[in-house]
Specification:
There is one protein chain. The chain is of the alpha+beta class. The protein has one domain: 2-Layer Sandwich (Translation Initiation Factor IF3), CATH 3.30.110.60. Helices cover 39% and strands 21% of the residues. The chain is built from 3 helices and 4 strands, in the order H-E-H-E-H-E-E. It has helices spanning 5-15, 31-44, 59-70; strands at 22-24, 46-51, 73-78, 81-85. It is globular.
């Protein structure tokens, strides 16, 4: 799944309105976190992930690892926040 530049720009604009749904805490990239992210992507398609200050990995590295583990695409990373997208054909209007 590869998004066009136009699609990616539209998703970046949309993610400005989002609050972080998934938080990476001191446990780091646990299986529970991956499952939580997978569930969030299934219901919302576009999910913002916030990294706690104590996490010792960069947002880009964490976003890439999480995206790989759930089959999503990284839309953007800003500071300690990353936004991931995975299309769900069952969601209407997308």
């Amino acid at each position: 799944m590869t998004l066009s530049g136009k699609d990616r720009a539209a998703l970046r604009a949309e993610c400005n309105q989002l609050q972080a749904t998934v938080h990476v805490g001191k446990e780091g990239m646990s299986q529970a976190l991956v499952q939580s992210l997978d569930d969030a992507l299934r219901t919302h398609e576009l999910v913002k992930v916030a990294l706690n200050r104590s996490v010792d990995v960069t947002a880009k590295a964490a976003a890439s690892e999480l995206a790989d583990s759930v089959g999503a695409e990284v839309i953007q990373t800003i500071g300690k926040t990353a936004t991931l997208y995975r299309r769900n054909p069952e969601i209407k209007g997308k």
